[in-house]
């Protein structure tokens, strides 16, 4: 998954938003929005919402595992699982 998505009209980074149970990417500049399908189920420890974006980080050397980073779509809380130091 890409880390950032950009508006096709004004090239501003799009922000994930939840609306009516669906997830959209919305431009804060022009208001354009499109459906976002690259979310995963992960319950946020702060607000309890169950949809997050996900990024995997791999260490470059040694025998360390992958770290999984979640970002809640509703409140933006970031959480991690794994070995990132």
Per-chain topology:
Layout: E1 15-19, E2 22-26, E3 33-35, E4 40-41, E5 51-57, E6 67-72, E7 78-81
Antiparallel strand pairs: 1-2, 2-3, 4-5, 5-6, 6-7
Q: What is the CA-atom radius of gyration, in angstroms?
A: 14 Å
Total number of strands:
7
What ranges have pLDDT less than 50 throughout 5 or more consecutive residues?
A: none
Oligomeric state of the chains?
single chain
Named CATH topology of the largest domain: N-terminal domain of TfIIb
**Residue share in helices?**
under 10%
User: What is the CATH C-level name of the largest domain?
Assistant: Mainly Beta
Number of helices: 0
Largest sheet: 4 strands, antiparallel
Coarse shape = globular
Let me know the average pLDDT. Answer: 82
Brief summary of the model shown:
With 85 residues, this protein is mainly β. It is built from no helices and 7 strands. The chain folds into 2 domains: 1-37, N-terminal domain of TfIIb, CATH 2.20.25; 39-85, N-terminal domain of TfIIb (Single Sheet).
Explain this structure.
- With 85 residues, this protein is mostly beta strands.
- It has two domains: 1-37, Single Sheet (N-terminal domain of TfIIb); 39-85, N-terminal domain of TfIIb (Single Sheet).
- It is 0% helix and 38% strand.
- It has strands at 15-19, 22-26, 33-35, 40-41, 51-57, 67-72, 78-81.
- A four-stranded antiparallel sheet has the order 4-5-6-7, with no helix packed on it. Strands 1-2-3 form a three-stranded antiparallel sheet, with no helix packed on it.
- The chain is globular and about 45 Å long.
- The mean pLDDT is 82.
């Amino acid at each position: 998954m890409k880390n950032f998505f950009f508006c096709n009209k004004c090239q501003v980074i799009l922000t994930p938003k939840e609306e009516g149970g669906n997830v959209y990417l919305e431009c804060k500049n022009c208001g354009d929005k499109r459906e976002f399908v690259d979310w995963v189920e992960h319950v946020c420890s702060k607000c309890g919402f169950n949809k997050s974006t996900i990024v995997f980080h791999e260490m470059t050397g040694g025998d360390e595992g992958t770290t999984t980073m979640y970002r809640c779509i509703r409140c933006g809380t970031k959480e991690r699982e794994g070995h990132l130091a």
